[in-house]
Amino acid sequence: MEMRELTIKKRDGVGKGPAKRLRRSGQVPATLYGGASPVNIAVAPKDILRLIHGHEGSTQLFRATFEGAKDGTMVIIRDMQFDPVSEDLIHVDLQEVAMDRAIQVSVAIHHVGESVGVRDTQGILEMVLREVRVSCLPGNIPGHLEADVTNLAIGDVLTVKDLKVPEGVRILNDPNQAVVTVAPPAAEEIAAPTAVAAEAVAPAEPEVLTERKPKEEAAAEGEAKDKGGAEKKK
Fold first, then answer.
1. Together in a domain, 160 and 177
2. Is the pLDDT score of 101 beyond 90?
3. Cα separation values, 53 from 18, 46, 63, 180, 194, Å
């Protein structure tokens, strides 16, 4: 496996002022853990984003080397902070690791295969758990774990113990914790036809003749007089 590299450099000064000046220069503040005490460093955000591009989660192993030095140290990303508005990377925590000592990291889960419940009965595949905690040597950190959903029918559940785990990797989650399931298809909402049908076939109510209004009576009397005058002329 090709080892990815990251250049880091020491930084002086802490607080908002130095951090802002550092970001304006194209760097972000970072902290390196694992030694006798944490070390304040600076890294290029584009380099960090390049390292994790295409990798779910941030627990990827790489070599961090101080600017101008020949030998580096093996690290993983412990934490990353992003600006809530701009979504720019603003701080990184790196954890130094020993290659002969097991560490605990989070690893993403990928589902593989086509579920029979989805293919044959239009079920809905639901990912309940998207990552697990594992313990392994730094050199054995898997890029992801696979959950084979091929034989899952509607109502079936695949659990942590069903995941394919490489040799040297131990999952720390509860073995019976659900990872993925197939739910029945969403029921279509069908409008109740009775109310609509009743409205369509209900007979119209007969018009009730009420006492004419005064204006209507006057118009009717005038019409009767005109008719009577016409008959006398005949």
1. yes
2. yes
3. 28, 10, 16, 25, 57
